[in-house]
């Protein structure tokens, strides 16, 4: 496999969407310029049935390495997923069964294939860490833990916060970074890519690689996609874009982002050249309407993760339903058990529960036949079109 050492592509790989590189940027840069074929990976714990855009960001960086000829591994954490990564968590994750994690990851490779190439002359390799963890005994675990101190584990900011708040820290949460670090040892990788919130776990892998293989592992900690409050976009915060979302939903969710997220969105969620992104930034600074840039961003993100036809579909829907305030051509139909507006909203899935439905009505976000509903006891009837927000419709039968 020919290794590409183009200077411009290497510089973009080292800078675009990158927060930090360990041990230092020059270490990785020299290896890339020398044309050494590197092996690197990112791990994805199947704690949900779909990947999301946060995972997609790391996949885009992996794709850069793949296109330069390096060996990329997509690691499915089917064992670590049962424990749960404590990174950035105010309390312990709920543990999952093996059956749950295996069910969750069924579609991961298919979803990732819009970004990563699993065929061709340099295919991405898929591995599962149950391959080695299910074979370990307690003596093996004790040996791994001997490479770390309790003081180091307590350096994690989320553990410090829990101690101050008098919240419990469970021993198995200490073991998670040890296990993630051991993934690197077993696969004998040169490097790992992850979000900046994964830095502690990835550096645990550097420790084990040094101690057990006398090898320097590089770590790329990427920038995170955060909302206007500085919170990471993801399933925990309830604001994620899932890679199984409908094109209309992906497009619409991006359009709901704040203007401050436009440039970072282009940088870390698309493959638009950086010189084009700089021009967009310059135009925005010069007073161009941010809506135009956001439309382009929504199209590019939808195209990147769902394909170009999906992006066109999402854009058409947005222009027709949101901008022109028309109804979509096809509206789901429901024959409800009860015609009460609260019950219809919940049964149709437009609202997650009765409290959510009442809140939507109170906030003026529910219409029946284009008229706002304010009465919780409102009774719908056949052929009524219920609308929640700008994008969600159902017709009562």
UniProtKB/TrEMBL annotation:
<dbReference type="GO" id="GO:0004831">
    <property type="term" value="F:tyrosine-tRNA ligase activity"/>
</dbReference>
<dbReference type="GO" id="GO:0003723">
    <property type="term" value="F:RNA binding"/>
</dbReference>
<keyword id="KW-0067">ATP-binding</keyword>
<dbReference type="InterPro" id="IPR002942">
    <property type="entry name" value="S4_RNA-bd"/>
</dbReference>
<protein>
    <recommendedName>
        <fullName>Tyrosine--tRNA ligase</fullName>
        <ecNumber>6.1.1.1</ecNumber>
    </recommendedName>
</protein>
<keyword id="KW-0694">RNA-binding</keyword>
<keyword id="KW-0030">Aminoacyl-tRNA synthetase</keyword>
<feature type="domain" description="RNA-binding S4">
    <location>
        <begin position="339"/>
        <end position="397"/>
    </location>
</feature>
<dbReference type="Pfam" id="PF22421">
    <property type="entry name" value="SYY_C-terminal"/>
</dbReference>
<dbReference type="InterPro" id="IPR054608">
    <property type="entry name" value="SYY-like_C"/>
</dbReference>
<dbReference type="Pfam" id="PF00579">
    <property type="entry name" value="tRNA-synt_1b"/>
</dbReference>
<keyword id="KW-0648">Protein biosynthesis</keyword>
<dbReference type="InterPro" id="IPR002305">
    <property type="entry name" value="aa-tRNA-synth_Ic"/>
</dbReference>
<dbReference type="InterPro" id="IPR014729">
    <property type="entry name" value="Rossmann-like_a/b/a_fold"/>
</dbReference>
<comment type="similarity">
    <text>Belongs to the class-I aminoacyl-tRNA synthetase family.</text>
</comment>
<dbReference type="GO" id="GO:0005829">
    <property type="term" value="C:cytosol"/>
</dbReference>
<dbReference type="InterPro" id="IPR024088">
    <property type="entry name" value="Tyr-tRNA-ligase_bac-type"/>
</dbReference>
<dbReference type="GO" id="GO:0005524">
    <property type="term" value="F:ATP binding"/>
</dbReference>
<dbReference type="InterPro" id="IPR036986">
    <property type="entry name" value="S4_RNA-bd_sf"/>
</dbReference>
<dbReference type="InterPro" id="IPR002307">
    <property type="entry name" value="Tyr-tRNA-ligase"/>
</dbReference>
<keyword id="KW-0436">Ligase</keyword>
<dbReference type="GO" id="GO:0006437">
    <property type="term" value="P:tyrosyl-tRNA aminoacylation"/>
</dbReference>
<keyword id="KW-0547">Nucleotide-binding</keyword>
């Amino acid at each position: 496999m020919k290794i590409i050492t183009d200077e411009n592509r290497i510089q973009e790989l080292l800078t675009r969407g990158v927060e930090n590189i360990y041990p230092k940027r020059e270490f990785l840069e020299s290896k890339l310029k020398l044309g050494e074929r590197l092996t690197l990976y990112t791990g994805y714990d199947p704690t949900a049935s779909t990947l999301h855009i946060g995972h997609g960001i790391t996949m885009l960086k992996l794709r850069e390495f793949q296109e330069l000829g390096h060996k990329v591994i997509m690691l499915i954490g089917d064992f670590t997923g049962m424990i749960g990564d404590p990174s950035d968590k105010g309390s312990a994750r709920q543990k999952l069964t093996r059956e749950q994690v295996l069910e969750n990851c069924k579609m991961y490779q298919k979803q990732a294939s819009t970004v990563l190439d699993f065929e061709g002359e340099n295919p991405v390799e898929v591995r599962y860490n149950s391959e080695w963890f299910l074979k370990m005994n307690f003596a093996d675990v004790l040996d791994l833990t001997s490479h770390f101190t309790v003081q180091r584990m307590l350096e994690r900011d989320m553990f410090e916060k829990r101690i101050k708040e008098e919240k419990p820290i469970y021993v198995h949460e200490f073991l998670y970074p040890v296990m993630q670090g051991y993934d690197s040892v077993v696969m004998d990788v040169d490097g790992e890519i992850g979000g900046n919130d994964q830095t502690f776990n990835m550096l645990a892998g550097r420790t084990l690689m040094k101690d057990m293989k006398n090898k320097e592992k590089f770590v790329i900690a990427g920038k995170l996609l955060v909302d206007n409050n500085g919170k990471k976009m993801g399933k925990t915060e309830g604001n994620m874009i899932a890679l199984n979302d409908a094109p209309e939903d992906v497009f619409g969710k991006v359009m709901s982002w704040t203007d401050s997220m436009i440039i970072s969105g282009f940088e870390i969620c698309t493959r638009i050249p950086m010189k084009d992104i700089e021009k967009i930034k310059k135009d925005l600074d010069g007073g161009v309407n941010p809506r135009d840039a956001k439309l382009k961003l929504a199209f590019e993100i939808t195209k990147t993760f769902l394909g170009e036809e999906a992006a066109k579909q999402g854009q058409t829907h947005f222009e027709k339903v949101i901008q022109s305030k028309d109804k979509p051509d096809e509206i789901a139909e429901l024959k409800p058990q009860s015609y009460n507006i609260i019950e219809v909203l919940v049964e149709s899935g437009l609202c997650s529960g009765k409290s959510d439905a009442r809140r939507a009505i109170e906030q003026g976000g529910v219409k029946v036949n284009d008229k706002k509903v304010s009465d919780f006891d409102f009774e719908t009837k056949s052929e009524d079109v219920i609308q929640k927000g700008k994008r969600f419709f159902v017709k009562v039968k």
